[in-house]
Amino acid sequence: MNSSQASSTELGQILANDEYLRERLRPRWRDMNYLVFTDLLVLIKAFAQRQKPGSVVFDYGCGGAPYEQLFSHCREYVRADIVPGPRVQKAIRPDGLTDEKSGTYDAILSTQVLEHVPEPAAYLAECHRILKPGGEALITTHGMFEEHGCPHDYTRWTSAGLERLAHQAGFDVIASLKTTTQIRGAIYLLHFFAETLRLHGRRNLRWYLGDFVRRVFRRIVRPILNGLGSCLTSQGVVPGSHPAAIYVGVTVHLRRSDTR
Fold first, then answer.
1. CB atoms < 10 A from the CB of 199, how many?
2. Domains of the chain (ranges plus CATH)?
3. pTM confidence score
4. Which of 83, 123, 215, 246 could cross-link with 185 by S-S, CB 3.0 to 4.6 Å?
């Protein structure tokens, strides 16, 4: 096994470990991404509830497939990723496309994947191709979020930009949304700042002070801020047309309405 295969295997294990999955399905106030994952969960639960019992769902870039249980009422939930892992059923090709037959799936779930795709237009065109006419896709990705290679990180989006790309792929946009906005978004960015804080001065003193600040923030400040942010529910998910200029995530809910 070469180094690139080893790193992919390790990444697949990380994406499927219990804590990674817990943070997404059961976020806690002490979690750095509490507000982000809480808002995502609202959208994904609503999308899952729209799916009929006979639906076949394709998780396109599944990682550890944290949201599969939300679709337990569906007939089949297919997990696919470019990175091999214990939860991956089907391998996505190196170009990010699939070997699935056209018009196979009733629904596609793509959560925090599009920013890692080198050719987003081709990815959305593939979503359109493998969906049945009338099938729906939920695509969530990032507006303001730290760089995080998994293994690569290429793009950030605005709502208008993601809507345009979806239209170009042939989709009807049912809904365009901004998530974790305004003060909720600013709280998340403050969490990230605290995690990456670097102090100047003597090396040992700098390390101890930085470590102390992070520990205090994680144990005391972060839960308090997340608790305050959780009260601002109206800033969790807003329409893409909302004037909020700070938003951590963007989402489009799409429908394939033709036979293209």
1. 14
2. 3-180+237-255 (3.40.50.150)
3. 0.90
4. 246
